[in-house]
Design brief:
The chain has 383 residues and is α+β, with helices and mostly antiparallel strands. It has 2 domains: 14-213, Histidine kinase-like ATPase, C-terminal domain (Heat Shock Protein 90); 220-380, Ribosomal Protein S5, domain 2 (2-Layer Sandwich), CATH 3.30.230. It contains 11 helices and 17 strands. The strands form 3 sheets. Strands 1, 2, 3, 4, 5, 6, 7, 8 and 9 form a 9-stranded mixed β-sheet that branches. The chain has a 6-stranded mixed β-sheet with strand order 13-12-14-11-10-17, with helices on both faces. The protein has a two-stranded antiparallel sheet with strand order 15-16. A hairpin with a 2-residue loop joins strand 12 (293-298) and strand 13 (301-302). Helix 2 (29-42) runs parallel beside helix 5 (177-194) and helix 10 (306-317) packs parallel to helix 11 (355-371). The structure holds adenosine-5'-diphosphate and magnesium ion. Magnesium ion (MG) binds next to helix 2. Magnesium ion (MG) is lined by residues 35, 38-39, 99, 104.
Length: 383
Amino acid sequence: LQLPGPKPIRRLQESLINRIAAGEIIHRPASALKELIENSLDACSTSVRVTVKDGGMKLLQIQDNGSGIRKSDLSILAERFTTSKISTFSDLSQLATYGFRGEALASISHVAHLTVMTKTKSDTCAWKACYEDGTLIPAKAGLTQDPKPCAGNDGTTIIVEDLFYNTPTRLSSLRSSSEEYARILDVMTKYAVHNSAVSFVCKKAGSTSSDLSTPSGSTTEQVIRLLYGHSVAKELIHVTTSSNPSKDEGRQSDGNDEGAMDVDEDQDEQDDPEAWSAEAYMSGASYHAKKTVLLLFINNRLVDSPRIKRSLEATYSSILPKGASPYIYLSLRIDPRSVDVNVHPTKREVHFLNEEKIIERICDAIQEALSGGSRSRVFEYQT
Ligand code: ADP
Ligand code: MG
């Protein structure tokens, strides 16, 4: 038997390479939305309004009231690796923003029609720009490539249309519009809880009523009540713990915190790359869900961690009847120097130093709070 000779190696077309790369980051409408929400939060928005058509496949529009984008930056906005968030390698270890790769808008422009309308405070009008394959395109052939002036409020509106129009396999891997819409609502719900002071609204295009709406300036508990219902909210136990529990001592919660942890670190902690703190709002012994609801944020990023989920479920298994599951919103802050967020393009997977030890400490704190009964709503964990 004769083996066939090797086939020649060919260079892929540039546009194909870009589409493949974009698919690594933008899997579905909800992953595009996650990137766009993070951009709005990075821009210090207090209002994020999302409009969706056909599960986000036809239209995904996100309007914020943040800083806006300077007109002079619009020409390179959708190029790969253009970002306002880091400039040197060492910045990566002190990351305070969600974004840093400058890849989201570029990726979206390779797999969808992208339009940006934006206005900074000092602009006298808004500017509109359309992008394709990483570059600014004229709105109509024959016009100049410059962004066009238009009416608009301070902030940015990003319009994503016909997602995956040029990648049919990706398109066919999507579920029904209603399932994709459910994922969009899920992402928004979680970000709304974690950013309770920010107003989030999500609705279908053409509909007068919204499917998700939170007022600005809410507390974490208010948003949980609004989005997950009274049955969860009335059960909530609030736990805070950290690498330095003596600092938590005496810290009282009036159940009215802003949700953001006030880690007003002293000098010692700032110098300790292993310092961490955690805050959780979670259900008590008499709340029984069918499936675990876990909202896990590490340094403000929504992430997945099957390991943390398993550990939390194990902690609850001693107090919940068989088959019952908890509700847990856990926000973990770790010194950026000990987190490696750069492991995966979607940034969903995060690894950090002393992972096992930290998880164990958090579970201990939760265990202690749970066994204390659910009458007292606030627990401070001390060693
Ligand atoms: P990254 O977030 O990693 O920097 P993106 O592609 O998501 O990359 O965004 C590129 C740049 O566009 C950002 O660094 C930011 O300067 C700007 N930008 C994107 N979205 C917004 C927004 N909603 N408001 C203000 N600026 C934005
Ligand atoms: Mg971004």
